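Quiz preparation item.
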């Protein structure tokens, strides 16, 4: 199955691979995904969407075994304050659902920030845009395709 994220990577000639797994509504978190695909949790990155005081949507990509520091995220994005969006807003704003939100191929190219620990890995996993599929790619390629900046977010 080709998702929008995979089509974008292919059209840009970005080397990647995909890994499918059994998705479970009760185990959509990145730690559960890491277990299912036999990967280190710090190499499986989750995509979080927030909104700043100017109502700008911001995307943060962090290792699955950490929580986003809202203070550090605000600093990285040049915002005074950020708040996570509500799960019910996710699909209408990004085109993706909880547990299948990829930083690649959202409805718009939102300002995106990847935690700097991604650079410790040759390749990292992120959602392919559907539940049950991950993309494995270079963090530099992920930053390139999403126009992301690396920052201290955790």
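Solution:
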């Amino acid at each position: 199955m080709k998702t929008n994220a995979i089509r974008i990577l292919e059209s840009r000639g970005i080397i990647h691979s995909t890994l499918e797994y059994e998705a479970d509504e009760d185990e959509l978190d990145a730690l559960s995904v890491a277990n299912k695909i036999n990967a280190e949790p710090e190499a499986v990155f989750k995509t979080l969407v927030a909104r700043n005081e100017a109502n700008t949507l911001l995307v943060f990509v962090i290792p699955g075994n950490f929580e986003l520091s809202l203070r550090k995220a605000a600093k990285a994005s040049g915002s005074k304050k950020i708040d996570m969006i509500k799960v019910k807003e996710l699909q209408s704003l990004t085109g993706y659902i909880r547990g299948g939100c990829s930083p690649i191929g959202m409805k718009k190219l939102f300002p995106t920030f990847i935690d700097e620990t991604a650079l410790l890995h040759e390749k990292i996993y992120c959602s392919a845009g559907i539940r049950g599929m991950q993309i494995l790619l270079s963090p530099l390629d992920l930053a390139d395709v999403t126009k992301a900046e690396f920052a201290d977010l955790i």
